[in-house]
Target: ABC-type multidrug transport system
Amino acid sequence: MSSKNNKNLSILLKLTTFVAPYKWRVAAALFALVATASLTLSVGYGVRILIDEGFAQQSLVELTNAIQFIVGITLCIAIGTFFRFYLVSSVGERVSADIRLAVFNHVISLHPSYFETNSSGDIMSRLTTDTTLLQSIIGSSFSMAMRSA
Model:
């Protein structure tokens, strides 16, 4: 079982060569992730102010301030989530395009006998399907996994 995990890990490590040119985008996405996680934790503080100072003291000013704080934090979380998703999705698109280009360049460099034994339709179908799957994993699933981790 561990050899299978090592094989899967080695396949994922090969993807790092394609992700490396976009390290600043990945770093920005991680920053957006940490920022939104921190802001999410501060919503509890806003609720505490809302209850302790707004409702308990029956102060309209404090109630308004607490609601504005919660709405402001929520907007910041939404903006951070947008940037995280945008950055991870754009990295997924670019990595997918780079992989397609690398695989296409490899396929056209193959000996003509390869194309005599394998159907060109099958080759193109595998190329398209596999890179689309990688694009989905890197672009969407990775973003959701980062958020859930």
About this structure: Residues 60-108 form the longest helix (49 residues).
